[in-house]
Design a protein that fits this description.
By secondary structure, the protein is of the alpha+beta class. It has 9 helices and 14 strands. Strands 12-11-10-13 form a 4-stranded mixed sheet. A 3-stranded antiparallel sheet has the order 1-4-14, covered by helices on one side. α3 packs parallel to α4 and α3 packs antiparallel against α5. The radius of gyration is 22 Å and the shape is globular. The termini are far apart. The structure holds N,N,N-trimethyl-histidine (AVJ) and fe (iii) ion. Fe (iii) ion binds next to α3 and α5.
Length: 435
């Protein structure tokens, strides 16, 4: 059992580092140290930060070994320096950063061979290793968003996502009643997903699929960006201040819209799920459509609740790990898929594409669940609890399976849209609609 776990941890570490290498080896040194947007760190910061977190948790804490580079801890502490200031720091250069993460990884593999993966909560079931894999994968997704902001010829390649296999439209009724939200048993679940707790969710309708580019364009054509009554007060203020008139990265191309994705221009595809919208845009669209955004609990119930057993699944399709036919995850493709591309990933009630493709905005502020305990550090989740952050669910085409499950929680400011964010709508049943 322990040997299997060690092998799995080693495989996950290696697979993750290969992805980091793709994201950092496909650009030259100038692009690695440049800041492509004030919203993002230079790629070389993410690289060394990933190594520094691995050093802090696995080399020093789990392994009890001497520091590799204690002198650089402060440079890679995300709370010490905002992203916009990071290019001015005396960061490790590309070659130094690569050597550093390599040295740390060698020590970690040695520690993995020797450590007892039981007893101490930090190492039970390989948790600290799983946390570090997820941390690196999350930064890989952030680096992928930096690639999307980078100006220049394309450097990343991937096959296009699969075509639609089934027609998907309309809404699904999720019956009212209790369901189990969060988890106390998923070994590598992060602190904010815990503990499992029962939530009573009244009946609601949720769209069978996230909103597509075509649907979103109808909102634009209908003057959605010109009419304050569809927007919240804060949303309209932001729409005006930021001059929003379409999703990020869209540009007008004759009568229609085009999108430059990872350096490759293409017309906006109507059947693809819309991506790069902020919470305020999602909320305005939903209001215009006569609906609203789902709450976080509604989203998770739609994704996990199995009416046949009354139990919550790990994923919409069941408890088995995500396979390629379930969901558009892991940067296998460089865009969301068209609606209807993943019927095998549907929930028991028939809700599609909940996992992968696009992160979905919910209407819920980021808070700890009842009984929340920060573990192993306050700065992962607890430092962000509060009304400034909205929860996103489900993962995107740039999210790795290791950092995605039915309980996984992401959060961001409601104005952010450089992330791979989309949404789906929900609504209350009208009188007589829900039995
Ligand atoms: C969960 C994506 C909001 O990027 O700020 C990375 C993940 N935390 N390093 C972030 C994270 C610490 C986090 N998000
Ligand atoms: Fe980090």
């Amino acid at each position: 059992m322990t040997e299997l776990l060690r092998t799995r941890v080693a495989d996950e570490l290696e697979r993750t580092r290969a992805r980091t290498a793709v994201l950092t080896d496909t650009v030259d040194d100038t692009d690695l140290v440049r800041q492509h947007s004030p919203l993002m760190s230079p790629l070389v910061w993410d690289l060394a930060h990933v190594g520094n977190q691995e050093e802090l948790w696995l080399v020093r804490d789990v392994g009890g070994r001497d520091p590799v580079r204690q002198d650089i801890d402060h440079l890679y502490d995300a709370f010490r320096h905002p992203r916009a200031d990071r290019p001015q720091l005396p960061l490790l250069g590309p070659a130094e950063a690569r050597a550093y993460v390599g040295t740390v990884r060698e020590k970690v593999l040695d520690i993995l061979d020797r450590v007892r993966l039981e007893g101490r909560a930090l190492v039970a079931d390989g948790f600290a290793f799983g946390m570090i894999v997820q941390h690196e994968q999350q930064h890989d997704e952030t680096m992928l968003a930096t690639h999307q902001l980078r100006i220049g010829p394309p450097v990343l390649r991937a096959d296009p996502p699969p075509a639609a296999r089934v027609p998907v439209a309309g809404e699904v009724l999720i019956p009212g009643g209790p369901f189990t939200m969060g988890t106390s048993t998923e070994p590598w679940a992060l602190d904010n997903e815990r503990p499992a707790h029962v939530v009573h969710v009244p009946a609601f309708f949720i769209d069978a699929a996230p909103v597509t580019n075509g649907q979103y364009q109808e909102f634009i054509v209908a003057g959605g960006y010109d009419q304050p009554h569809w927007w919240s007060a804060a949303g309209w203020r932001h729409r005006m201040d930021a001059g929003l008139e379409a999703p990020m990265h869209w540009w007008r191309d004759g009568g229609g819209w085009a999108y430059t994705r990872f350096g490759q221009p293409a017309p906006v595809a109507p059947d693809e799920l819309v991506v790069h919208v902020c919470f305020y845009e999602a909320q305005a669209y939903a209001t215009w459509a006569g609906k609203r955004l789902p709450t976080e609990a509604e989203w998770e119930k739609a994704a996990r609740f199995d009416p046949a057993t009354g139990l919550s699944r790990r994923y919409p399709w069941g408890d088995g790990a995500p396979a390629a036919h379930h969901a558009n995850l892991g940067q296998r493709h460089l865009s969301p898929a068209p609606v209807g591309a993943y019927p095998d990933g549907a929930s028991p009630l028939g809700v599609q594409q909940l996992i992968g493709d696009v992160w979905e905005w919910t209407s819920t502020d980021f808070h700890g669940y009842p009984g929340f305990v920060a573990f192993p550090y306050r700065e992962y989740s607890q430092a962000f609890f509060g009304p400034e952050y909205k929860v996103l669910r489900g993962g995107s085409f740039g999210t790795d399976a290791a950092a995605c499950r039915g309980t996984f929680r992401n959060w961001d400011y409601p104005v952010r849209r450089q992330i791979f964010s989309g949404f789906r709508c929900a609504r209350d049943p009208h009188a007589g609609e829900a039995g």
